[in-house]
Amino acid sequence: MDQPQQEPPSESSPLVTDNRTAIRNSALQAVLQLSDHSRVYLAIKFLISLGKITACLLILFLTSTDVEKPLDTFIYIMLSIECVYALVTVVNFSIPPAEQHFRLKRTISLFEYLALLTYITGHILGNIWFYSCDSCFDDARELTILSLVLIVLGYIYMCMPCLLCCCICLCLPVLIIALMYANPGQHPATEEQISKLKVASFNSTEHINKECVICFAAFEENDEIMILNCDVRHSFHSVCLKKWLRINNTCPICRKPLE
Ligand SMILES: [Zn+2]
Ligand SMILES: [Zn+2]
């Protein structure tokens, strides 16, 4: 089969780099936009803070706080931090961060930073007091249970960035496929077009492209890959490319339509 006459874009050409970046960025933006200070997210955050504040106030003022270790101090620390977070959430809800004045943004950041430092210190102290108190459950059951709940929540918050990273990494290929479906004005390739594509077994010495930009995974020896006619370096996992082409009949890198 004749190769196309046009000069293929080089691997480092702006076109190739832009397309790769665009594919990755569009998926990441979709994830970030979901969590980026949306009003629903802020409302949920405020309700959680309100729940914690209510629980702390009820326990502190309606039950016994007479215990061997100062667990009530731990609750007071958590209560004050939660009040700061609730206040910041209300401000962000009423004035979206994009419209905030520089000075307000800086003040919010300072409060959040101080709250985080206090939270970490309070959490460490809470752990020490909780685990070193032998008679707390007997002396002030409600106070001790609330302390335990706040300590467990603290561990969950600390693990949250790791969990979020894992979720994003695992969901990225799914998101890309979803974005391809969501992109209007595109046409799928026919099965006949797909069947005519060059299929090869990946060989690291023979093939220049070492990574599938659809799933972002590096090719492994003998992986079944498909190479598009637009450029010998535009190769992808067969499975990934077929999924792409059944939605969009263009090359994922240079956007050249399939012949
Ligand atoms: Zn792939
Ligand atoms: Zn291409």
From TrEMBL:
Pfam families: zf-RING_2 (PF13639)
Start and end residues of each RING-type domain: 212-255
Record field: transmembrane: 42-62, 74-95, 107-131, 143-176
Coiled-coil region: none
Presence of keyword Oxidoreductase: no
Keywords: Membrane, Metal-binding, Transmembrane, Transmembrane helix, Zinc, Zinc-finger
InterPro entries for this protein: Znf_RING (IPR001841), Znf_RING/FYVE/PHD (IPR013083)
Top-level taxon: Eukaryota
Keyword Zinc-finger listed: yes
Record-level Gene Ontology MF annotations: zinc ion binding
Record protein name field: RING-type domain-containing protein
Native species: Stentor coeruleus
